[in-house]
């Protein structure tokens, strides 16, 4: 029976409904012993998505969330003119390459009593009358303006599928010059209202009779082959599918790269079914290939709503226009429905300029042939032009921008991307799935005047990484030498992939893009694209170079780390979280290294040369550090912290299972390493400072910290020097406090000595709460 929130007698009216599919818990497993789930510490999982039906009609669906039994979607849907007593049915499916498995369903009637508010509900999911978890939704509604049919409004969702297999079917290359192609699926709203009629396959088209006609015994086999190719091309996966939404015509044109590839216009072949708009780029060389056939996009459907081709044109005022037609020999949709097709596009992308033309239109045919040939010299679109520079001079200062005496520069540097870099790995599984025999997990290190100041996150399994990371530096000398080093991230030692360098100069606040040559051992090793913007400032006093802006972090979650501690994360899995925060300006606040504590007998066996076994033990700890802080697309979360609130949110406000926790930390020149530790874990290896330092002989600081409540409930970071391994002096506590406050402006920080009685008392209480 559906869950009902409708009071008696409240029917007949129309409402506008805002529905958010938030999350689900305890759902049925669709896959067992999958690789993605195993890497997350689970034996079973699902790639779950939700379909939405209103009064038996499928209207929308979420994206799939991979390898979990507790998916979180947080996707909003907007529906107008819904009958007040309508039934909403939410069905969960496990996304597979062939048929998707049903995981259960929940349903409810439209809500009458919560006008102009948003209410959250946990709905029970059932599968064959058995409990199959719960789904969390948020619902709000207002009265509809006037009588009309039910319609969905708001951003239009899309998925873009990139696969090596699809590239082999066409032998075409994507914008990244790889052996792959892009297939697009756009979840158009309200398709049945504009295109209510199905157009069957064209029985006058001899080429496709062998696939659809029952007169040919082989047709079921051929049709199944096309269906399989469709499933492969539109396969979903974390590493091959991009999900998003389109809120404006500009968003749509950006999605399809303004209808251009390799700086030439392209045609798109499309099919519209009840499930959305399927299309891909196709060019003259591919027209006889399977990917250019509409039946591949339709999944060999016997009928579609509409089909044809489209391209993007530029109007006289440089506005982009969608030109769409009915040029499909497979389905031959009638020209009489072109006005409805145009209205459908204009309804989904308000403000778009759209022209729907018949396949026999002479101007259309001319434009299509133009798309197959050379692009006009003044055509726009594609990647922005790059200014090539030598590796030693960039950017070149303008003649008019003479710097005042003693002036320094504030610099914004964006590390954008790299191409054709050296491979650090060969025959990797992820690279092979992308159609590559070799790849790198590349990151870039930034060095200014011989001092390493920042680095990007690694981008995995590619020779053309895209970072798009911005860095902000103050008080840069105009003649400072800046170097960029590329490395391949590995569990043990990272391999160097090359370097480039440039001299900082004034750009007068203008942003410039440069492509710099990378070299390794005197040989070319690809190129790296950077953007720079700088402007001069006149220092009031003696100033130091320093970095400012968001603080980057990585959070590492691994089954191995959890097994070392037997701890559980907030998600109650056998794993633990290890944090690495790239604090800015560490040497300015903590310039002195503190060596291991020679008065601490426990660690002498690891660090002292008097013990023959110390190198072996130290290497073992270094290996454990590498495992816990290993980087990977499935076990590492990357981000940045722009405020104290974001920091406290990152560490779950210093609580787990409703109780406060302690954190064990070390600070080295590479950043702030820490993890949660509780009483049960204090004698375990993960609680040792030497594990976080990688068994370093010295660190800049070490201790423990916790989160406390300050005035009016504001969180406060309480940090100390409680480390037997390194025993940093209490005299450095003010510099430690200043370092944290410099990185997180506005944070309340209290730095206490390990001998502080109140600190010891609170520490003891926290430990006892975990016993």
From TrEMBL:
Any one GO biological process: positive regulation of gene expression
Domain C2, residue spans: 1-125, 391-517
InterPro entries per UniProt: C2_dom
PROSITE patterns to which the protein is assigned, alphabetical: C2
Pfam hit, one: C2
Signal peptide: none
CDD domains listed in its UniProt record: C2
Domain of life: Eukaryota
Protein name: C2 domain-containing protein
Source species of the chain: Phytophthora aleatoria
